[in-house]
Amino acid sequence: MMSTAHFIQIFTFFLITATVLSSSAPSGFSIDLFQRRSNNTHELGSSPYADTVFDSYGYLMKLQIGTPPVEIEAILGTGSEIMWTNCLPCSNCVKPSGTVVFDPSKSSTYKERICDGKSCPYEMAYSNKSYTKGTFATETIRIKSTSGKPYVMPGTTFGCSHNSSVDFKTVPSGIVGLNWGSFSLLSQMGEDMLGLMSYCFSGERGTSKLNFGSNAIVSGDGTVAANMLRKKEAYSMYYLNLDAVSVGKVRVETLGTPFHATNGNIFIDSGTTYTYLPDSYCNKVRAAVENVVKAERVAAPDNMLCYRTTNMDLFPVITMHFQGGADLVLDKYNTFIINNGKFICLIIFCRPRAVFGNRAQNNFLVGYDTSSQLVSFKPTNCSALWS
Ligand SMILES: *[C@@H]1O[C@H](CO)[C@@H](O)[C@H](O)[C@H]1NC(C)=O
Ligand SMILES: *[C@@H]1O[C@H](CO)[C@@H](O)[C@H](O)[C@H]1NC(C)=O
Ligand SMILES: *[C@@H]1O[C@H](CO)[C@@H](O)[C@H](O)[C@H]1NC(C)=O
Ligand SMILES: *[C@@H]1O[C@H](CO)[C@@H](O)[C@H](O)[C@H]1NC(C)=O
Fold first, then answer.
1. Is the minimum distance from the CB of 291 to ligand 3 under 6 angstroms?
2. What is the pLDDT of residues 242-275, one digit of tens each?
3. Distance between CA 346 and CA 338 in Å, rounded?
4. Signal sequence span per UniProt (predicted)?
């Protein structure tokens, strides 16, 4: 048996806890929310977007920070709020070669945020023991726009991280939070964007786009939508209700499991690779897969459900049924992985917290609409879309 690391690559970046370490703001992000820009350089009829790149296991967003602008690549996280980047001086930052570490002293627009007359330290913890610690600051952020001119966001609040530990084997400089908390990049864009964003991940190396505003509306043939729920206690994740999972023709209902009793039982995250379901329900889905697949089971790390075969035809089509009417018929690529050219494994894992990860979203144009509270999915060949 080999180690999980050789077996598959996992990336889990959703926020677990966040603290502002300032007496005026003992918990959560209660520091003053400034008026959002109504006067951006945003031109009517144009939409901002960022180029994204797929880097072995995660999707990174390109943006520019500071004056003069420095380009960074950061994990695109719809399960996170605050944007942060590694900053100098960095007492402890993981720096694989090629990672850009932002130097605030070289930027004329960098400003520390002040809470209580002092600087405003924060700590955030992500899944799998990743964390960032630093101070809140404001900076000018730039992304692209369909007008051809950059979309400029002066005074954007972000975390200047001086101590982080993140399992980056690649080159990201930080994380861009895109959930619906008030400090996410989407929220900081203001009402012009109508709380709209969309992406289309292909799982192939190459560039794609994260769209905001009117260009992020997902509609047309094949589009389905799931209801999005907001929960106060849970860091502004985009929650959905998963009603059932069909394994081939067998529909496995969540009804009757503790999983069903939770309103908003799963959240969708662009920063998590695979999909997680809680044990009570997950085991039913696994059992349904085991009933269908006629191949030799093999022991695998992390209790993965693996078979010694490379014949995908032996595996069932999995459909996820979300409340609101989104029945997502997933490609086998979305739910199974070929490991070491010898095994096929199910990439739905049993974990306490349910997450709908990016691999399962591959080849859907996914649109978030916080004002209508819907997540739309449109089956799309994402590689073809951006080429
Ligand atoms: C927005 O821009 C207009 C025109 O340039 C200006 O008169 C107004 O004061 C600006 N408002 C804000 C909030 O900056
Ligand atoms: C960074 O934070 C970790 C975790 O809290 C701590 O153990 C470590 O001492 C810190 N490192 C530095 C250099 O401050
Ligand atoms: C958590 O991190 C460890 C060590 O970096 C890694 O081996 C493991 O695969 C990670 N697990 C998950 C679920 O991300
Ligand atoms: C998707 O588009 C790419 C690029 O145009 C093409 O190479 C590929 O064959 C398409 N895939 C499918 C399943 O149509």
1. no
2. 999 999 999 999 999 999 998 999 999 999 999 9
3. 9
4. 1-22
Same domain (yes/no): 39, 167: yes
Q: Give the total residue count for the chain.
A: 387
Look up the pTM and report it. Answer: 0.90
Which strands form 326-329's sheet, in the order they lie side by side?
250-253, 242-247, 318-322, 326-329
17 lines ligand 3 (CB under 6 A): no
Average pLDDT, the chain: 88
Testing ligand 2's pocket by substitution, the residue of 90, 163, 165, 166 carrying the most ligand atoms inside 8 A of its CB is 163
Cα separation, 303 vs 351, in Å, equals 11
In a domain, 330, yes or no: yes
Ligand 2 atom closest to Cα of 123?
5
Q: What token pair was written down for 161?
A: 């991280």
Whether residue 202 is contained in a domain is answered as yes
Overall average pLDDT of the 212-235 stretch: 91
Verify that 363 and 297 share a domain, yes or no: yes
Ligand 3 center from residue 37 Cα (angstroms) = 39
> Are 150 and 169 in a shared domain?
yes
CA distance 384 to 387: 5
Type and span of the H or E element at 65: strand 58-65
Q: Please give the C-alpha separations between residue 306 and each of 8, 313, 340, in angstroms, as whole numbers.
A: 12, 15, 12
302 token code pair: 């992390």
Establish if 4 belongs to a structural domain: no
pLDDT at position 28 is 44
| Domain assignment of residue 270, yes or no | yes
CATH code, domain with 233: 2.40.70.10
Ligand 1 centroid from CA 153, angstroms: 15
Same domain, 169 and 206: yes
Where in the sequence is the domain holding 172, given as residue range(s)? 12-216
